[in-house]
Amino acid sequence: MSGFDESAKLWFSGRYIDWKDANIHVMSHVVHYGSAVFEGIRCYNTPKGSAIYRLQEHIQRLFNSAKIYRMKIPFSFDEVFDACVQVVKINGWEDAYIRPIAFRGYDSLGVAPGKCPIEVVVGAWHWGKYLGDEALAQGVDVRVASWNRLAANTMPALAKCSANYMNSQLIKQEAMADGYVEGIGLDTNGHVSEGSGENIFVVTNGELLTPPLSASVLPGITRATMFTLAEELGLKLREANIPRELLYIADEVFFTGSAAEVTPIRSIDRITIGEGHRGPVTEKLQTRFFEYVNGELPDTHGWLTYVTKK
Ligand code: PMP
């Protein structure tokens, strides 16, 4: 069920090792305090070879997340970047979901990290459609979470820190317990923030809106892609605070994320959104997104890092 390929190799602080040997001690700092920052990146099988999507931006966000937490990653940008490429390559995969993570390891257990070493691991596996196989075409049913996203100046939302995902787990598990696939979190002002692992976009009155970074959102790489694609497609997109009730009366709502890609939302709190299926604006952006990541359009933005060349 895990979806892991346990015969795979992964990169562990500078060495390629067997999956089964990638262990840490239970008294490691990260286990007790959630002291880790990480990324989730997709590699697509394109006609020209396997290509990692926006690797540069993901590694930059990893280093940014670490900086916020005063965590000095003991490897260079290029070393971590290269490890992501090599992990896909040495396992001989055509597509993959890549998970780099930097965490405070084993030494002592004060909240202050003391001399705990910072370890960096890059693992990967095959991850299918995150919100289900039919989600991309049919859309998903979601709820607004009873839990809020992280309050400003508490857990920094711009950092992709493991501990933030305790909040995501509350949102996701609550939604699933009630028969939804995902939950939408509001920020502590009551404005729409994001899903437990996705940014959110709303189509209303002929324009596209997405919450600003100050609404406790992760600065999503797919979110950034939407700004580029909207411009290319002549769609108006801007950041705006979104009241909860605008979700219900919007023409279209969709999620974006490396795992979720571009997923339409067809109902929220059992209220049908628009026509109750993928709307035309979502479809346009989704189609263009897949054309780029699958290498069907020329890589004019320099988004693809080829692992192998066919
Ligand atoms: N918000 C959260 C909380 C996430 O975990 C993710 C997934 N990384 C996103 C948004 C989407 O970000 P990206 O497009 O960079 O994957």
* Top-tier CATH class of the largest domain: Alpha Beta
Number of helices: 8
CATH architecture of the largest domain: Alpha-Beta Barrel
Overall form: globular
State the distance separating the first and last CA atoms.
32 Å
Write out the distinct hetero groups bound to the structure.
Answer: 4'-deoxy-4'-aminopyridoxal-5'-phosphate
Number of spatially distinct domains: 2
Q: Can you count the beta strands?
A: 17
What's the oligomerization state?
A: single chain
Series of secondary-structure elements, N-terminal to C-terminal: EEHEEEHHEEHEHEEEEHEHEEEHE
Mean pLDDT: 97
Low-confidence stretches: none
Strand content: 25-35%
**C-alpha Rg, in Å?**
19 Å
Secondary-structure content class = alpha+beta
Query: CATH superfamily membership of the largest domain, which one?
Result: D-amino Acid Aminotransferase, subunit A, domain 2
And the CATH topology of the largest domain?
D-amino Acid Aminotransferase, Chain A, domain 2
Biggest sheet layout? 9 strands, mixed
Range of helix content: 25-40%
